[in-house]
Amino acid sequence: xxxxxxxxGNALGNLGNSYADLGETRAAIQFYEQKLAIVRxxxxxxxxxxxxxxMSLSLDQLGEPWAAxxxxxxxxxxxxTRACRLPATRSQILxxxxxxxx
Length: 102
Description:
The chain has 102 residues and is mostly helical. It contains 5 helices and no strands.
């Protein structure tokens, strides 16, 4: 069920992007809102952050900068959670790797 929901969420996000590209910003936001409900339901934190970003861009297009800032702050909160850390850098990986014994 989770994969089906994830696929549906991806499709909704893609539709939102398409409508945004066509200048149909309000329609795009409606698709992003539907996707947001799905990604939150399945616990897809990266998808949630991406969707919040897309919504913020659309809100900027509508001339609603404060609403856009609100979405960006929510995105920031999503990416600050432990479940959504960015991949480690090469140097961090090398530092944490076990050292060979002599």
